[in-house]
Write a structure and sequence with these properties.
Elements lengths: L3 H22 L25 E5 L2 E8 L2 E10 L4 E3 L1 E5 L2 E5 L3 E3 L4 E11 L5 E6 L7 E3 L1
């Protein structure tokens, strides 16, 4: 775990990257709003940004206050033409999904879940996009 000014700088860089991805992702069919449960259909970056993880072509960013997640954003880049959707996992179980979107090779998709709620301490939260490599996780 990064400490002090280094962690702060990494978080700021990640926030800038996610903000840019969110802005680019709203410009066309690559944007996938999350549609299950109490999930919002916008593509904005979390603020404040507390936890970021990337794996393969996929990243997630969580804004947390204690064990309450106030925003859960994810983005991915398609390695080839594919139709996909985001899956949100709590300790290995899918708890929400985004709407689907079809992408061309190199195109990005973004999904955002505003106010997903409180989770028990030690919960592992992950995001994956179907048919695309990577399943980043954070533990709150």
């Amino acid at each position: 775990m990064l400490q002090g000014p280094i962690r702060s700088a990494v978080v700021r860089v990640a926030l800038v990257v996610f903000a840019a991805v969110a802005v680019l992702g709203t410009a066309g069919p690559a944007s996938a709003g999350v549609t299950s449960g109490a999930v919002a259909a916008s593509t904005t970056s979390p603020s404040p940004l507390d936890l970021v993880a990337c794996a393969g072509n996929t990243c997630q960013a969580l804004a947390v206050s204690g064990t309450t997640v106030t925003n859960w954003a994810t983005s991915t880049t398609a390695p080839n033409s594919v139709c996909t959707y985001a899956e949100y996992f709590e300790n290995g179980t899918i708890i929400a999904e985004s709407g689907s979107t079809c992408l061309s090779a190199g195109q990005q998709a973004n999904a955002n879940w505003a106010n997903p709620g409180k989770f028990p301490a030690g919960t592992k939260l992950c995001t994956a996009w179907t048919e695309i490599a990577g399943k980043p996780c954070n533990t709150i």
